[in-house]
């Protein structure tokens, strides 16, 4: 009697197709989907325009149908006519020029001071130990509440407004710069030190490029803060400026003119954001 019986055909494993067969060629010919996009940002310029158009259409429809009083919510067409009147009589450029000058001076002063202090806090341990508690203590103070004090110090003119905007921009810039430097990978710095790279070259070639995205992101926040503070400062004590213009229109119950001034502020914010986007695209093209 034999030691083992031959297996039945049903119990035998299925035969494998040859490696060079048709099945192998089909699997090898399948395209592999690319998975290394790295969250690449795609530009959809039409999406923002479509959203703005839809918002304006709904707003105009609500006003046309009488669902909102023109006194409390004038339609976009009335706001456009008021804006055209501001352009025709020259008041738009007069007020816009005053506000832009105040934003530019205050933002530059606050940004330069904030970057210097933020760099010192990010690089030197002593500056960090001193600066973090001070920034945490002074940052929550409402900056517009200090405008009367700045008026006492610098007078009712432009320096008090520059100080208000600069003081409001200073602390967010410090935090953004310090946090951006602190988030630079330490292994890159250690590798540069192990190769004997000088301290200044490490700052210039590793720390600054690594911190630049965070610093530029902070610029977007501080630009918006400067726009808010200039309006508040102009409402308290200014003859010209978008904030003074909006306050005067509100006192006269000219809501279409008031919203025209608000529209100008919105366009200013959009223009500043566009400039910062171009700056980011130019300085961060290595990413």
TrEMBL record:
Location of the region described as Disordered in the Swiss-Prot/TrEMBL record: 1-23
Low complexity bias locations: 1-10
InterPro entries assigned to the protein according to its UniProt record, in alphabetical order: MetI-like, MetI-like_sf
Keywords, alphabetical: Cell membrane, Membrane, Transmembrane, Transmembrane helix, Transport
Residue ranges crossing the lipid bilayer per the database entry: 45-66, 78-96, 103-124, 130-155, 162-181, 201-219, 226-252, 258-279
Record flagged with keyword Transmembrane: yes
Main location (coarse class): membrane
Domain ABC transmembrane type-1 as annotated: residue spans: 96-276
Location of this chain's protein in the cell: Cell membrane
SUPFAM superfamilies xrefs: MetI-like (SSF161098)
Membrane topology field: Multi-pass membrane protein
Family: Belongs to the binding-protein-dependent transport system permease family.
Record's protein name: NitT/TauT family transport system permease protein
Species name: Azospirillum picis
Classification of source organism: Bacteria, Pseudomonadati, Pseudomonadota, Alphaproteobacteria, Rhodospirillales
